[in-house]
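Escalation from tier 1.

The customer reports that the assembly of two entities below gives different structure tokens on two consecutive runs. Tier 1 could not reproduce it. I'm attaching the input and our single run for tier 2 to review.
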Amino acid sequence: MSLVWRKRWFLVLLPLLVAVTVWQIRIESDLNAFFTAGDNEDSKLLSGLLQSGELSRRYLLVVEQANIPNEAHSTSLDAFSAKLVLQLARIEGVEQVWPANQPPREWIDALGSYAPYHARLFSLNPMEDGRELFDPVGLSHRAEGLKQALLSPQGGFVKAVAKQDPLLLSLNGFKDLKGQFERQAELDSGGALILQSRPAALDSDAHLRLQAAIRASFDSLNQSSGGLFRLSMAGVPVFSAAAHGEISQDVTLVSVVSSVAVAVVFLLLFRSFSALHWVMMVQIASFVVGALVTALVFGTVHSLTLALGGSLIGICTDYPIHVMVHCAKHRNSPLDAARLLWPSLVLGGLTTIIGYAALGLTGFPGFEQIAIFALASITASLGLTRWVLPALLAHSSLHVAHLPGIAAWVGFCARRRTLLLGLLAACVVLAGLALPQTRWMNDMQKLALNMDRLKQQDEAVRSHFAGIEPGRFVLVQADDLETALRRSEAAERRLKQLKQAGILTEYHGLFPWLVSQELQHDNVQVYAQALTPHFQEAWRAALVKAGLSVDKLGQLSPPAAQPLEPKDVLASPVRHILSGQMIEGQKGVALTLWLGEHDPQKLAEGLAGLAGTRYFSQKDQLDRLASLYRDRSLVMLALGIVVMGLFIWLQQRNIAKVLLTLLPTLASILFIFAIWALIKEEVSFLHIIGLLLSVSLCVDYGIFFMDNRGRDSDITYHALASSTLTTLASFGALGLGKTPTLPILALSVSLGVTLGFLLCPLLIQKPSLK
Amino acid sequence: MTPNYHYPRSVIKLALCLLLALLPRPGFCNETELQTLLGRIRQNASAEFHYQEIRQLELASSPWQGEGSMLSGADGSLIKLQLQPTRVIMAIAEGHMYYWDPEQQQRHTAPLGQSGQGSELITVFVAILQGHADDLKSSYDFIPEQHGKRWTLRLTPKPEPGNEDAPTIEISGDEDERKQHVLIRQADGESTEYRLIKTAEGQPLDEAIRRLLREAIGD
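Tier 1 run:
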């Protein structure tokens, strides 16, 4: 195809490609999906819980009175909260909202449905509790309590239960639930609300809209109440929406600064707007291909992938730059220069792809996307540089700026090679001595966005709630639901003991919402034994004494013939109550028991010996993942270098050349580790991954320098300098990001490419300098 | 467990009827007079009543009887202080219902405005408290009757879907403005009867109302 037609086709297809990509792409901003969705069961569980769990969709709202409390404080705050609950319930995206000190209506309605099964679920420890529950001596007091309950505001509810369950046994198991709300009532002055949202926890756009609607609703009500109140919000969606905002800012900032910096460097080097324009179009095409392929492979593209992918512009620009520098210096046509450099470009591109592929194999879920993105972008960039760029640059006049100091540094390295190598050897020894001081980062939280203000707000809001601790729970696993329920009940018995021992303030289990068949059977046994004629007579006497109807309450019915089936329970609104506590997967069932404040170590010890039951800490799991990723990153760093060496050997067929090509890279890795050790930088897997990236770039420099296809090392080193500058410009922009991932990568890559570039003329002696 | 949740219609209707019963007795025989009555509904001053309560419960073998004091605040709050057979406080204030039974150690709180079974009656209650007659007409038919010195105001739920379980409320009295009689008949056959005698009125009652409200809330 002629150059003219190549250009025409490119100009026609590029807008189409952009349009298809915009239509196809779905951007995700969930940091958890980027960091935690891994390939082991615990990672998947953690990720699943974070993304879809009921608790992850829950907002904690606190309304407080701005003034000092006065006598009317409690009631007026109550009244305001009650109105706010009604208003919030009408917002689209709100599934349910209720005061924290009272269970939602559907919970209470659900209690009534358990009355027919009272003989099957009255206790977690039927043998033990049965003695007190079926003691004839206490029946007078129970009958009197029933009468008072019938006269109380809950009379209607109690009547409906008592008709089927005169002893109110079905409510016995829910005593703990009542206790939880009573503790909340003690803690809360009436302004603590719980809002269950409809959108998935990580649908940040929907949550941003919802949060705005909540605030607008509050503001309007508060205005009509004289502005006496203030609202605070907490919960997973608040953090995810804030993270979304921060990451979006980072993506915009990094993309803009990176593009502008690369453009400025490019203009300074080539002084040609025409060339800049065409090269940028090639880069846009490469970026869009990367985004489209990633979207097609993964379904969604993470915004961090786009941010880091944006930095690829700096790498992909290397290929056109090499062509243009050679073209300008040698006065070749762009087509000739592209043909001449093509083998080096392919090998350089290949080693970069190897670096990114190794990155994708570290197990870090987000980097799998980046690896695919890089593979597609680099391939596109290489192809466009070889076949399209010459067509685009056909009429551009190229001049390359002479970079001061380049020839001087190459000359200095040649003249003082012995001295410099001696110095380098000393530095290598010193660096080796510094390595044992390397500090590893074991806390994954340090990689999360700095949200101190939000964390403080979260802490303040949570102080109004006597709820569970986020991120730490008891995990019960089994092959089937019945076994899982039995194990969960055993764990609840243990948790009860731990609570009595003061190790745990409270817990949210599944009993008696869901009860195993085994426990139902045990309850029935105890109930049947207790229901003696003597007991029944004593009950009737107690009813008479309390003035209650013996006809309607005196007949204690036998146990329900059919057990309470989990599938029936889960078909009722109870499934909302238990949502987030049951995860059914291909490998069985996992149940979670949420925990209040507790001593992790003692709690974990207290659960020892229970089959399929363990204490699960989200933070510990994240930290384990951090260590796992770090170890894999180190392996991949080594493996990446070996594979790159192999590819270089396949081209060069000379082991000495391979070693020489890799030498600047290896030396720079050693020095970077030593620098980190000396400045006491905590090294995480992200640092290693940054190094891996810089290795893939530095090896390119070694290849280009060693290959020196233009037979002019000054031009080659100028091309490398230009590449280094654009790489620094693009990766340096990552340093502006607030997401800690980005500055870490910026530092690692910048240090790596700078050292690699400077060491090339010192360590690679082969090219004859002009 | 006695769960802490929404209040049934019987409680709401009680509040509603008591408030109605505590009103100055009107004379009415047509729509205009009814409008006049509803216009005078709003409580402008605090008042205290002695009450006797008789409840016919479906699950009780005989009528239950209690007595105590009823305090109505000018701000729309209402306190029912049961003294016999045991001390129990039930209060309505600032859109909430509070219940405190010291003997059984049972305390409950719930917003009046929670949707559900009693929501319509809550709306009626609030409307009466605030004197919004037009709001009442959408839910209840008001039937005033006068036979000599005796008068009766019957509130009948309109025959509309969702209104099937609403109670019928009857407030009656005679020339003695201090005495009133309230009868609430529920759809399930249960009924509650109140006999009220006004014993005091005026601002000094406000402190007692506040104190009892604090006790009911648990402050």
